[in-house]
Design a protein that fits this description.
About 40% of the residues lie in helices and about 10% in strands. The protein is an alpha/beta fold. α2 packs across α9 (about 215-235), α4 (about 75-90) crosses α5 (about 110-120) and α7 crosses α9 (about 215-235).
Length: about 250
């Protein structure tokens, strides 16, 4: 019965993380955001949402503070690829038409893509459409310029303006009144050892939380959802548009 309900439908799989997000946000930020985006995208596409995968790859000092801060639950990159590959293989046996993977943790992205591409190479994705993205990858530059202005880059947005705003909109009960800023966001693409986390972060925050608000979070949430739905319904030349979504 359940298999037949999935036939020709869309399944959305949120993948997040459990790790520190400064003194003002919970450890579950990446999991919460991935799940909330996934739920709304599934609703818009008349699809189904899978439970969130919350244990992830660990952050490095210049993209999340690394393991200098307590609370991070992680597995190695190769272990994550193996797990995602096996989970995706079991999913592929179900008769859905489209799998959408919504990632909420910066360091997960290459491992998610590798696992899904391995599925394709093994011939297990035949007859199915797979769309995977990190939610921030759908934020248009024009939106950032209009709503945020000076932006440090997504690698440095850990526990910053956008994540704080999204949490204020979606789960304000989990956000404290603190608004820490870090005026020297790290550069992208750097690995440092040894690293002084007291200089590269402010209590685990890599950029600024000043100006965060539920209003900005609401705008950002619906911007990402609309971009994701348009990617499926309209295709943008990247995927075959509008094939499922039964009436």
């Amino acid at each position: 019965m359940y298999a037949e309900r999935l036939r020709g439908r869309t399944v959305v799989w949120p993948i997040g993380a459990i790790e520190q997000h400064g003194p003002h946000l919970p450890l579950s930020v990446d999991a919460v955001l991935a799940e909330e985006f996934a739920r709304q995208i599934a609703y818009e596409l008349d699809g189904f949402t899978l439970p969130v995968q919350a244990v992830a790859a660990r952050s490095l000092p210049t993209s999340g503070g690394g393991l200098a801060f307590p609370g991070t639950l992680y597995v190695s990159g190769d272990s994550l690829v193996r797990f995602l590959r096996e989970a995706a293989r079991s999913l592929a046996a179900l008769p859905f038409e489209r799998l959408i993977v919504v990632n909420g943790h910066y360091k997960n992205e290459p491992f998610v893509f590798e696992a899904l591409d391995d599925l394709r190479e093994r011939g297990l994705a035949e007859g199915k459409e797979i769309v995977a993205f990190s939610w921030w990858s759908l934020v248009e530059d024009s939106w950032l310029r209009a709503e945020v202005g000076d932006f440090p880059g997504w690698h440095a947005e850990h526990a910053g303006l956008t994540e704080t705003s999204l949490m204020l909109f979606l789960r304000p009960d989990l956000v404290s009144d603190l608004r820490p800023d870090h005026d020297r966001p790290p550069r992208a693409g750097l690995y440092l050892h040894p690293v002084d986390v007291a200089r590269t972060t402010n209590q685990g925050v890599l950029s600024s939380t000043s100006g965060s608000s539920a209003e900005l979070g609401e705008k950002l949430f619906w911007h990402v959802v609309s971009q994701a739905v348009a990617l499926v319904r309209e295709g943008y030349g990247l995927v075959r548009p509008g094939r499922s979504t039964p009436s």
